[in-house]
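Project outcomes to date are best conveyed with an example. Our students and postdoctoral researchers have been running inverse folding experiments weekly, and each run begins with a structure described purely in tokens. The record below, which covers 267 residues, was selected by the lab manager from last quarter's runs and is presented without edits.
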């Protein structure tokens, strides 16, 4: 096959991928628009209770009002920073714990049943304990964001470390590679896809942990807005907060996805 044929096949492949991407984005946009049209219609025609489920127009009006008075951005900034901190720290701590478990097979055997129990335990139920232990403030909220993601990160990444092809490790050992060299040259590169998929999962988990923490203790943030909305029976505020959370969680997910694509292409 000539070089020209290779280029032609590559261009055809690229065009096919671009067409597929446009098709997917188009349908995502259509579903998004249809959802809000149906929601508005159902509210206006009283197919759903407009007091409880509100409508896009009312939520949109409240959004503009909250943007103009600056309150939404203030609450969003607080929750966003708490979530990013919980996301980064939870992921890093999980990877560090997985590395320690891989490094010491004895320690991994000792801690394995405890990890299973901690993973099965509802992390949200530990929220009040964290608040009592750490006090009502940003530390307890960020810790909640860390808690919901660190155990699952540890388990997934450690499992990926253990599933690395043993032939790679044996080849490195035949060249007298140290354990740190084996980790750097075989374990980490082979586990990279699992780490990225764990990052994607942790985006959602970090938001859940932080919002729950704000439910329990915060006087600012999107979680506080939701609780306050329920207290005063302002479901427009509740739905606005939920929509903002969904949008920014999706943005964080897309950022992680973009980093993944960049690293894969670089690799």
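After processing, the design step wrote out the following sequence:
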């Amino acid at each position: 096959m000539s070089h020209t044929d290779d280029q032609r096949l590559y261009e055809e492949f690229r065009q096919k991928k671009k067409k597929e991407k446009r098709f997917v984005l188009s349908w995502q946009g259509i579903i998004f628009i249809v959802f809000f049209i149906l929601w508005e219609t159902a509210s206006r025609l009283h197919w759903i209770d407009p007091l409880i489920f509100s409508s896009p127009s009312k939520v949109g009006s409240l959004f503009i009002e909250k943007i103009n008075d600056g309150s939404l951005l203030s609450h969003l900034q607080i929750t966003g920073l708490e979530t990013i901190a919980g996301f980064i720290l939870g992921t890093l701590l999980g990877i560090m714990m997985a590395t320690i478990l891989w490094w010491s097979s004895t320690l991994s055997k000792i801690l394995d049943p405890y990890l299973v129990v901690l993973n099965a335990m509802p992390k949200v139920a530990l929220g009040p304990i964290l608040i009592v232990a750490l006090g009502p403030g940003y530390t307890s909220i960020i810790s909640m964001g860390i808690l919901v993601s660190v155990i699952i990160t540890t388990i997934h990444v450690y499992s990926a470390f253990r599933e690395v092809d043993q032939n790679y490790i044996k080849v490195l050992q035949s060249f007298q590679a140290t354990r740190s060299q084996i980790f750097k040259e075989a374990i980490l590169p082979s586990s990279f896809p699992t780490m990225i998929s764990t990052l994607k999962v942790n985006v959602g988990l970090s938001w859940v942990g932080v919002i729950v923490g704000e439910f329990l203790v915060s006087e600012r943030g999107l979680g506080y807005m939701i609780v306050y909305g329920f207290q005063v029976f302002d479901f427009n505020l509740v739905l606005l907060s939920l929509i903002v959370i969904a949008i920014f969680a999706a943005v964080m997910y897309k950022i992680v996805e973009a980093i993944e694509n960049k690293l894969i292409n670089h690799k």
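The chain has eleven helices and no strands. The CA atoms of residues 171 and 177 lie 9 Å apart. The training component of this project remains on track.
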